[in-house]
Design goal:
The structure is a single chain. The protein is of the alpha/beta class. 42% of the residues lie in helices and 14% in strands. The C terminus is likely disordered. It binds guanosine-5'-diphosphate (GDP). Guanosine-5'-diphosphate binds next to α3, α6 and β7.
Length: 324
């Protein structure tokens, strides 16, 4: 990308979009087009079409999505499938009509089949059924990938799709019912420490294993891929390393400085027992992550504390967090 290129980051107020904007600014890209949800509703086809026709960006990062943890996914399926389908249809088709030079669509590791061999290789896409707890989100994201591939085949668009592993970082969502495991645990352990609670409850058995990537590392990967990747095939972004949720809980307790007991609530779902990406393709291109889990957790915790000084917990939840 030319440093003067006009770049639209869809979802720039969310965790991933704001990390992409920080990285673009750090690398000296000054011509960014950004719209809050109030300014541009990405589920509104006409508004998105008009926006593209007027602004004519050259590059697009699609970081706008309805996202959430295992509980939000299984209790709000309609929002997860409808909003994601609408946003990606509008943005991808709008980008094609406006002659965008390159677009990067972000999927997720949950697009892979529940029973796929681990680590998850890109070619396992659609080789089986997704994990039921997040199937709604997964089906929408798979449709987004296929949209990019179809527009490449039929119209020659240089639209690529990257699949990040589980993410965390600055600007995460801390709503207990909607959040992913890292912000949920940071908050639970922090509140337990302040309240002098003897125990913290972690959902599930503690045995599922997950891989976590710091959002700023994903942002670096996105810029890297825009410059170095132009294939129809999806590409994974992660560490290729995982740990058990029980180990993660121990690490979070240590970082927060909580010394009480950790108990597991097996009435809550475990989801996939293991999710680890095969990252050999992106590694072969010359990219690797930089922020290790301990360092990243400390950065995320610092951000949570900083935001809490200015906001209240209810302001750190998705209803108030313009992720799109
Ligand atoms: P997933 O990768 O789609 O399952 O997303 P999550 O980040 O929501 O969950 C990852 C794992 O952490 C699952 O096995 C959850 O059951 C477990 N987990 C443990 N405690 C919590 C919690 O307080 N919130 C969430 N969201 N997950 C938790």
């Amino acid at each position: 990308m030319d440093k003067r290129a006009k770049i639209f980051v869809a979802g720039h107020r969310g965790m991933v979009g704001s990390a992409i904007v920080r990285e673009l600014q750090r690398q000296g890209y000054g011509n960014l087009v950004l719209r809050t949800r109030q300014e541009l509703d990405l589920t509104d086809q006409r508004a998105v079409c008009e926006f593209f026709g007027r602004e004519r960006p050259e590059y697009v990062f699609v970081a706008a999505a309805r996202v959430g943890g295992i509980w939000a996914n299984s209790t709000r399926p309609a929002e997860f499938i409808y909003e994601n389908l609408a946003i990606q249809n509008n943005v991808i088709d709008g980008a094609y009509r406006a002659g965008v030079r390159k677009l990067l669509f972000l999927g997720s590791s949950c697009i892979y089949p529940r029973e796929a061999p681990q680590p998850l290789k890109e070619e396992y896409l659609l080789a089986g059924r997704p994990e039921p707890t997040n199937q709604w989100y997964a089906v929408a994201k798979i449709a987004g990938i296929k949209l990019c591939q179809a527009y490449r085949r039929q119209y020659g668009c240089d639209f690529i799709a990257a699949m990040p592993t589980n993410l965390y970082g600055i600007n995460d969502n801390y709503d207990p019912d909607g959040s992913h495991v890292i912000p949920a645990l940071l908050r639970k352990f922090h509140e337990a420490k302040l309240g002098g609670q003897p125990a913290v409850t972690v959902w599930g058995s503690g045995r599922p294993r997950r891989e976590f990537l710091y959002a700023d590392d994903l942002a670096r990967a996105c810029l890297f891929l825009i410059d170095n990747y132009s294939e129809e095939e999806i590409i994974n972004v992660g560490w290729g390393r995982d740990l058990a949720i029980a180990e993660l809980a121990g690490l979070v307790a240590e970082i927060v400085g909580y010394g009480g007991e950790i108990v597991f609530d097996t009435d809550k779902p475990d989801g996939m027992m293991l999710k680890r990406l095969d990252v050999s393709r992106i590694t072969a291109l010359g990219w690797r992550p930089l922020v290790g889990l301990r360092e990243g957790l400390q950065l995320a915790y610092d951000d949570m504390l900083r935001r809490l000084v200015f906001e209240q917990w209810h302001d750190l939840s998705p209803a108030r967090q313009p992720g799109m």
